[in-house]
Design goal:
This protein is an alpha/beta fold and about 475 residues long. The chain is built from twelve helices and 30 strands. A hairpin with a 2-residue loop joins β25 and β26. The longest helix is centred in the N-terminal third of the chain and has 15 residues.
Length: about 475
C-alpha cells in the first residue's frame, strides 16, 4: 500500500516593517526584525528557526529592497538558505506582499499551502506551534483561510480583534468560521470586544495560494492585477528577486486585515495553543521579557537600586537606575530614550519629529551595515571624520573613487588586500596606506577572519554619496 504524503507547507516571512515604535534600537535602514530585542537571535532569525522542521519547506521572505543584504546575512548566520528573498521596491502593506508570495507558490506548486508569518512575533513553544499548523492542513486544503486568534490578556487598541462563530453540537466543521473582525479599535472598543469574547488577531494564516488569489480577485482586483504585472516582470539579481517597480509602486497600500479578513466568508479561526507576543513597542518587550523580583527587565550592563517595573536596554554603556518606577530607558550608542513605561508606545512621535528636523538618527545608527560588512562612526567634525570598517571574510568594497575626500586606512586586525590606482598591496596589523582624493581604490578581505580597519577621512565634503562606483560585486550603482 502506497502512502500519500501530506502537501508541503510553504512558509513566507513578511519583513517589510520599519518598527518606528522601537526607536532608538530600531531605525528605518536597520529595523526591529533585524535586532536582538529578546535573546541571542534577532526577531527574523527566531521566526526562521521556528520553521526548522522537515515537514515544512524552507521559508521565503518578502522584504524591503533596502534590507536585502541584512536579511541574507541573517539567514547565513543561521546556516539557512531561504527559497527566495523577494524585494519590494516600496512598502505596500501586507495584502500585496502576500499576493506576491501566493503568485510565486501557485506557479511552483498549486497544491501547496502558504503559511504567512510576520517577522516580529515571539512564540513560546515552537514545536507545539508547528504541530498545530500541520493539524490544520486538512482545513486549509478544503478551501478555508485558517487564521489564529490569541486569548487577550488586556485591551490593546493597536491589534486586530477576531471572533469565531459558535459551533453547533452537530456541526461537522473542525474549525469555526470567523464571525466578526475589527481592525485596531480604540481602547474603549477593545475592552468591549474582549468582554464579547473576541480574540487578538495574530496575523498568522494558512491557506492555498489559489484560494487567497481568488479572494483578492473578489475584493481587490486592481491590486491583484498590478501584483501580477510586478511578478511577471520580475528580475533576478544575485540571490534576490526584484519586483517590477513601476507596477508595484502604483498599488494602493492595503492590509490583509481590511482586504480579506473583514470580507471573506472562507476565513476560520483556531485559537493559538502557545504563548504569543507581537513585539511592537517597548511596553510589549517589557511584558514578555524575563524580569527580576521587582518587575525589572534588563538587557546589557545595568545596575539598579530601589527601582521596579521598568525596562532598561543598553547596547554599549553602563546604565544605572536609582529610585525609579515604571520607566523605559533605551540607550543606543548615539541616542537615548527616557520615557514612562505607560507612554513608551508613543515613541513614533519622536521619530516623526526627527524626520521633520532632517535628522538622520531615525534612519540609521552610528553603525551602518553594508553587504561587505559594516562601518561605525567614531568621531565627526568639520573637515574630517573617523570610522571603523569591518569587512567580512571573502568580501570587498566596490572599486571606487571620491571627488571631495581623501582617506587614510590603518589595519587593526586581519589582512587587507588593497588596490590604490595601479598598485596592489597587502597590509597587516599596524600598517597603513593613504588614498588621495580622486584615486581609484578598493579594500578587500581575502582572509578567514573579519578585517578591522580604522579609516580617517579628510576633505571639504564627507557624505556617503561622494562615492563613484566603477565596479561592484553586489550590483549597486
Amino acid at each position: 500500500m502506497s502512502s500519500v504524503k501530506p502537501p508541503v507547507v510553504y512558509p513566507v516571512i513578511l519583513s517589510g516593517g520599519s518598527g518606528k515604535r522601537l526607536w532608538p534600537l530600531s531605525r528605518s535602514v536597520y529595523p526591529k526584525q533585524f535586532q536582538k530585542v529578546l535573546g541571542q537571535h534577532t526577531l527574523l532569525q527566531s521566526t526562521a528557526l521556528r520553521l526548522r522542521d522537515e515537514r515544512f519547506a524552507a521559508p521565503a521572505i518578502v522584504c524591503n529592497e533596502e534590507h536585502r543584504f541584512i536579511a541574507a546575512e541573517q539567514f547565513r548566520e543561521l546556516d539557512q538558505s531561504p527559497t527566495a528573498i523577494i524585494l519590494e521596491p516600496t512598502e505596500r502593506n501586507t495584502a500585496p506582499a502576500i499576493t506576491i508570495a501566493a503568485l510565486r507558490l501557485y506557479e511552483q506548486n498549486p497544491d501547496g499551502l502558504l503559511l504567512v508569518l510576520p517577522s516580529d512575533h515571539v512564540i513560546e513553544d515552537d514545536p507545539q506551534f508547528c504541530d498545530q499548523i500541520l493539524a490544520l492542513v486538512p482545513d486549509a486544503l478544503s478551501g478555508k483561510i485558517v487564521t489564529f486568534g490569541v486569548p487577550p490578556t488586556f485591551a490593546d487598541p493597536e491589534l486586530g480583534y477576531i471572533k469565531a462563530a459558535q459551533l453547533e453540537a452537530e456541526a461537522i466543521e473542525r474549525v469555526p468560521m470567523v464571525d466578526d473582525f475589527v481592525e485596531k479599535p480604540g481602547l474603549d472598543v477593545a475592552s468591549k470586544l474582549i468582554r464579547e469574547g473576541f480574540s487578538w488577531y495574530s496575523g498568522i494564516s494558512l491557506m492555498k495560494a489559489e484560494v487567497y488569489l481568488n479572494e483578492m480577485e473578489a475584493f481587490a482586483p486592481e491590486t491583484l492585477s498590478l501584483c501580477k504585472k510586478a511578478w511577471k516582470n520580475r528580475v533576478h539579481d544575485l540571490a534576490f528577486t526584484r519586483l517590477e517597480a513601476e507596477s508595484y509602486e502604483r498599488i494602493t497600500p492595503s492590509s490583509i486585515d481590511k482586504t480579506i479578513m473583514e470580507n471573506s466568508a472562507r476565513t476560520v479561526m483556531s485559537p493559538l495553543e502557545t504563548a504569543w507576543q507581537d513585539i511592537r513597542t517597548w511596553n510589549s518587550v517589557w511584558s514578555y521579557h524575563q524580569k527580576d523580583g521587582l518587575g525589572n527587565a534588563f538587557h546589557g550592563d545595568v545596575v539598579t537600586t530601589e527601582s521596579r517595573n521598568s525596562i532598561v536596554h543598553t547596547e554599549h554603556h553602563l546604565a544605572a537606575l536609582v529610585g525609579l518606577e515604571d520607566v523605559c530607558v533605551i540607550a543606543a550608542d548615539d541616542a537615548i530614550l527616557v520615557s514612562s513605561l505607560k507612554y513608551a508606545g508613543n515613541v513614533e512621535g519622536i521619530v516623526d519629529t526627527l524626520r521633520d528636523r532632517n535628522s538622520s538618527k531615525h534612519i540609521h545608527h552610528s553603525t551602518v551595515y553594508r553587504p561587505w560588512g559594516s562601518f561605525h562612526s567614531i568621531l565627526s567634525a568639520p573637515g574630517f571624520q573617523v570610522k571603523e570598517l569591518m569587512v567580512t571574510p571573502g568580501s570587498s568594497l566596490s572599486l571606487q573613487k571620491h571627488q571631495h575626500r581623501s582617506e587614510h586606512w590603518v589595519v587593526v586586525n586581519g589582512t587587507a588586500e588593497i588596490r590604490r590606482g595601479d598598485d596592489e598591496m597587502l597590509l597587516h596589523e599596524n600598517q597603513s596606506v593613504y588614498i588621495p582624493v580622486g584615486t581609484v581604490h578598493r579594500l578587500a578581505n581575502l582572509g578567514k577572519i573579519p578585517l578591522h580597519v580604522i579609516e580617517v577621512q579628510t576633505g571639504t565634503y564627507l557624505g556617503e554619496d561622494d562615492i563613484i562606483r566603477l565596479e561592484d560585486t553586489y550590483g549597486r550603482s
